[in-house]
Amino acid sequence: MGRITTEPEMEEPERQHPPRRPSVPPRERFEGAMLYGSIGDALGWPTEFLIAGSRQCSFELPVQRFVPWTKRVGGQWWGYEDAIGPGEYSDDTQLMLAVARSIDEAGHFIPEYFAYIELPLWLQYERGGGRTVKTAARKLLTRRASWLNNFYQQKDLDYRQAGANGAAMRNLPIALVHVHNKRELIRDSFYNAIITHGHPRAILGTILFGLAVHCALTLSEPPPPPLFIECILDGLRQVPQVIRSDQRLQHWLHTWNRGLLNKELNFAQLYQSTLHEAVHYLKQIPAFLPRDPKDYYTFVGALDRQTKGSGIATVCVAIYLFLKYLHQPQQGIVVAVNTFGSDTDTTALFLGSLLGAFHGLKAIPPTLLDEVQDRHFLLDLARHLHTIAEAAASSTESTAVTSDREASYFSILSWEVAFHEMFHGEYQDGDRLIHPALGSGAIQSQEEQPLRRDGYVARLVRVLFKCGQTCVFHSRVKEDGSPSESLASEVVRALQE
């Protein structure tokens, strides 16, 4: 199988550490991380697919405030228009919120709950979700797959090669609740990543972002760049021990390696080369700080179409921007959002999370703070995570609860009744429904659009849930009223297997 070791290049530096705050920082830093992360996502989403020199867009450039825009969903025969309001966030924040709901009162991430409830149900209200995460979510609706064994292969998508940032972008809640414990942060970050992504680039990117948030939360003064980077590297040195001590991760490693061809690198070898890449990117940050940000983007491949969504490159760019614009947080976000050709929404989410974790809410312009989607829900959730972190820091209890897979499937089937009725036109604005993950909600608005494919229309139903989250459920609907985004048939097959 091979051993995962620390990177030889990561020599022991002279031990210098700035003063640290108490194990659980003030609540405002949790609020700042959640709010500014979501704000970065909402600001960067409209520019995600713009290219340098772009002039063909419906809003003014550079983007410095929330703008309304329209996203085309689907292709020529299956496509419809989704009108995105100012301040509305993408799948990045949606999945971050889903991870937060998958953390129990003791601070443990429950991968079964995320994999068998949150992730499949997210398919029905996702906005901007990537192919990798959507493929992984659907695969989990089969008994052959599990959160610890989701080795999918579909057309050009291969779990072992899935190295993008779709896991890192949802990892903030895990970093917040484990601010007192790097080892648990690393373990739960690893769990979070492997539900959907199997390449070390995605897994290390997820851990790397979690460690960066940890450092931003716990360092008491503006850190010199080498000290902030060393804080992250100190966490990366602990990864091998965490893996060796966890039976579930050992089982996953065995499965990962079992399917290899003779000449393919095993996980430990691939991990080592990826770790070397990440450490190299991090250690070069100080040299690039005086230069144009695009130089560092280019250096890590964040402007290359093939690598711009890399789980390593995107996080490293955010760390670079955090250190460059630590005292100018608004300028840093503007740079992240308007560096066209990069993964703007995810980079800005990472950067906003780091800036908010260090500065708190004062880093956020009041207009953005007031206008981001579901502001009060984001604040409430940040406070809830802070309460969990405080309790976990003073507790010796380490037992995590689990989520029953069969019960989760029956919950989805129960919801499918309301889902079908919603798209069959049986609900009116103001009518209430109950969602397995989001709770009680009320329909705010409904929209129907024709499709070029005969016999189908697209329907979008906006629901405001009592918890404070807003979701736009969407489906292509046949003439008989059956929604194509239904999960019922897949769940029934899973229950029968």
Task: Characterise the protein shown here.
The chain starts with 26 loop residues before the first helix and ends with a helix. It has helices at 27-44, 91-101, 111-122, 131-139, 172-177, 182-194, 200-218, 225-236, 239-244, 247-258, 267-283, 285-288, 293-300, 311-324, 329-337, 344-359, 366-371, 375-393, 405-423, 488-496; strands at 69-73, 80-84, 153-154, 157-158, 432-435, 439-450, 456-465, 470-478. Helices cover 48% and strands 10% of the residues. It folds into two domains: 27-58 and 90-393, ADP-ribosylation/Crystallin J1 (ADP-ribosylglycohydrolase fold); 405-496, Roll (SH3 type barrels). A hairpin with a 4-residue loop joins β7 (456-465) and β8 (470-478). It is α+β, with helices and mostly antiparallel strands. The strands form three sheets. It has a four-stranded antiparallel beta sheet, with helices on one face. Strands 1-2 form a two-stranded antiparallel sheet. A two-stranded antiparallel sheet has the order 3-4.
